[in-house]
Predict the structure of 1,4-dihydroxy-2-naphthoyl-CoA synthase.
Amino acid sequence: MSSVIDWQRSGEYSDIIYETAEGIAKITINRPERHNAFRPQTLFELQQAFNIARDDSEVGVIIFTGAGDQAFCSGGDQKIRGDDGYIGDDAVARQGIGRLNVLDLQVQIRRLPKPVIAMVAGWSIGGGNVLQVCCDLTIAADNAKFGQTGPRVGSFDGGYGSWLLAETVGLKKAREIWYLCRQYSAQEALDMGMINTVVPLADLEKETVSWARELLEKSPLALRMLKGAINAVSDGAAGMQQFAGDATMLYYMSEEAQEGRDAFKEKRRPEFDKFPRRP
Ligand code: S0N
């Protein structure tokens, strides 16, 4: 895959790469020897990188991908799976306690008020596929393969991995994907509505960057509100809380709300009469 944009790398990470260019952040899982399976450390670093991208006002779109062209992500690293989760090398792990911290990352991607595009080459499997389902858009290479493995390897994701997938591809298809653990080509994934487009592997980054640039031309607040609105329905009260927070942010930006703040600071009665009581 040739690079179509001058990525600038920053930060010190062992399991991921964080890069930015032209208002786009690219976050790459960098464990190609395990088909980019994640371990606790990978997830800590991903959470940090997504936070950096969220806080960077220069960044409008995030591309999430895996290193190399063999895998986007193959899910939890089964080689370090203990009896109650994944065993890292942090203080918690030293007490023999496992972690299931991919769930935090899923929520973070859903809540992040900027579009996240999954750029998928090769395997998108298990918890890796759940991550691409959580992303706003997915651009796949023609060598991509998608699937869940839970009932084969002794795991399942009953959260976003199940019901968000069902919302995305329909209940019957979601059951088939999970119950039978089959693998699906990029074209099949496109046909079932699990991804947005398929391109030749050589064009994957060019196409993804082109989608990102198109997004950057759009109103950031409109994109933020649409992401919140679309996710609010399936995220229930938590989704509404996020959407309501955005409504508060917009209200703060109005003269009407600022009048309340200013009146308090100036120790006077607020003059709300000057604002219309809208129909
Ligand atoms: C992807 C597969 C089908 C590719 O097969 P292929 O092409 O034949 O390659 P391999 O030779 O198998 O793989 C190349 C090397 O990569 C290693 N590797 C691949 N996947 C993993 C993995 N997930 N963990 C560790 N290593 C992996 C291979 O072992 C090989 O290296 P060597 O030769 O050195 O051994 C095939 O690789 C495959 O089926 N992989 C396993 C896919 C899988 O089952 N993933 C885990 C599914 N479960 C989860 O993701 C957990 C879900 C989850 O995270 C979660 C959900 C809800 C609540 C909590 C959690 C939580 O656990 O946190």
Q: What stands out?
A: The radius of gyration is 21 Å. The pocket of o-succinylbenzoyl-N-coenzyme A is lined by residues 34-35, 37, 74-79, 100, 102-103, 123, 125-127, 149-150, 153, 155, 157, 161 (CB under 6 Å). Residues 6 and 21 are 6 Å apart (CA to CA).
